[in-house]
Specification:
70 residues; transmembrane; mainly alpha; membrane; transmembrane helix; single chain; 1 helix; 0% strand
Length: 70
């Protein structure tokens, strides 16, 4: 004997829809996290690259410039 619950198929469809939306929300948050983290690492890399340029110039001036004077 099966138990008949009126509206159970509608509730089942709503639960399925909720699970699909939850999964899409999770994918969106993962994509957003990767996008933000990638931009952060990229900007950090460019910051340190520009920061290291004066040090590279100073290194070239101090050490390599003396070799040309010989």
């Amino acid at each position: 004997m099966s138990l008949f619950i009126p509206g159970a198929h509608i509730i089942s469809k709503l639960v399925d829809l909720f699970c699909v939306l939850l999964f899409l929300n999770l994918l969106t948050w993962i994509w957003l996290w990767i996008f933000i983290w990638n931009n952060f690492l990229s900007s950090l890399f460019h910051f340190f690259k520009h920061l290291s340029l004066p040090f590279a110039h100073m290194f070239n001036t101090l050490f390599l410039f003396n070799d040309t004077q010989k």
